[in-house]
Design goal:
The protein has helices at 2-23, 38-66, 69-93, 97-112, 121-124, 134-140, 159-170, 173-177, 180-200, 202-210, 215-231; strands at residues 148-151, 155-158. It has 258 residues and is mainly α. It has one domain (2-231). A hairpin with a 3-residue loop joins strand 1 (148-151) and strand 2 (155-158). Helix 1 runs antiparallel to helix 7 and helix 3 crosses helix 9.
C-alpha cells in the first residue's frame, strides 16, 4: 500500500523540483496574461472543441436526458466525497488546519450518514465544501502561475495548475488505497460528474465557445479571471486592466467552473 503510494508519487515530486522554477519564469504581457505558447494552445483549443462537438456534448446530453437528476446528483456527490481526502492533504500543506478539520468532518459525515457519499447531509449541517488543490498549494508557497496553457481534453490551465493537476492525480490518497477494479469505479464516477457538469452548464459553456468572436481569447480570459479570483490575486478585465481588488468580492464565472 505505502510502497505503491511512494512509487506513484515520485514522478510528480520530481516534477515539482524542475517545473516549479519554470512556472515562475513566464513574463505577463501588457494585458496581464503570459501566453508564449499561443500557437500551440490554439491548436489544442480547436481540437478540444472538435472533440466536444463529436463526443463530449452528445454523451453528456444523453447522460443528462436518460439518467434521472437525483441519480446524477448522487453519482456526483460520491465523486466529490472521494476527492475530499486529497483536499485535506492540500489544506495541511497550506497550513490551513481549520479547513483540514472541516473537510475531514465533511468526509466522515457524508461517507457514513450520507451512505458512502451518495447524499450530502454535511452541507445541511454547516460543513459546506471548501475545495483546494495542489495548484493552490503551489500558489501559497509563492510559485507564480506561469504561462497559460491548453491541455488536451482537460482544457484551459496554467503551468502551475498543470503541475498541480499532475501531483493531485499522483498523490490522490483514495486512488492509492484502492485496487485496480475500484480505481476504475472511481474514474467512472468522475467521468459521470464531468458529464453532468457539461450537461447542466451547456448553455453557458456554448455561449463562451460559439458566441464569441474569438473563443480562444474568451476562454483564456474566463479561466484566468476565475482562477485568480479563487486565489485572491488580481484578475484581468476585458480591457486588460487589473480589476479593483478593494471592491466587494464576486466570481463572475462561478457557475462555469463549478
Amino acid at each position: 500500500m505505502f510502497p505503491s503510494f511512494t512509487v506513484r508519487g515520485l514522478p510528480a515530486l520530481a516534477a515539482v523540483s524542475g517545473l516549479v522554477v519554470l512556472a515562475g519564469c513566464a513574463t505577463p504581457g501588457p494585458d496581464g496574461i503570459a501566453d508564449p505558447y499561443e500557437e500551440v494552445n490554439r491548436g489544442w483549443h480547436d481540437t478540444n472543441i472538435a472533440l466536444d462537438k463529436a463526443v463530449i456534448k452528445p454523451v453528456s446530453t444523453a447522460y443528462g436526458t436518460v439518467v434521472p437528476d437525483p441519480l446524477r446528483k448522487g453519482f456526483s456527490n460520491v465523486s466529490d466525497t472521494l476527492g475530499i481526502p486529497g483536499t485535506v492533504v492540500n489544506d495541511v500543506l497550506q497550513l490551513r488546519f481549520g479547513d483540514a478539520l472541516h473537510n475531514t468532518a465533511r468526509f466522515a459525515v457524508n461517507a457514513t450518514v450520507g451512505i458512502g457519499g451518495l447524499f450530502d447531509p454535511a452541507t445541511e449541517m454547516g460543513l459546506e465544501e471548501r475545495d483546494s488543490d495542489f495548484g493552490e498549494t503551489l500558489h501559497t508557497w509563492g510559485v507564480g502561475e506561469g504561462a497559460y496553457v491548453v491541455l488536451p481534453l482537460y482544457g484551459p490551465s496554467t503551468e502551475r495548475d498543470s503541475l498541480g493537476l499532475l501531483v493531485d492525480i499522483a498523490l490522490d490518497p483514495v486512488g492509492n488505497l484502492l485496487g485496480n477494479p475500484e480505481k476504475s469505479y472511481k474514474t467512472g464516477l468522475k467521468v459521470a460528474d464531468l458529464a453532468d457538469t457539461r450537461y447542466r452548464y451547456s448553455d453557458l459553456y456554448e455561449s463562451v465557445i460559439y458566441d464569441s468572436a474569438d473563443s480562444y481569447a474568451q476562454m483564456r480570459l474566463t479561466y484566468l479571471d476565475n482562477r485568480r479570483f479563487e486565489l485572491g490575486t488580481p484578475i484581468v478585465t476585458g480591457g486588460g486592466q487589473a480589476a479593483d481588488q478593494g471592491a466587494a468580492p464576486y466570481d463572475i464565472y462561478e457557475d462555469f467552473y463549478e
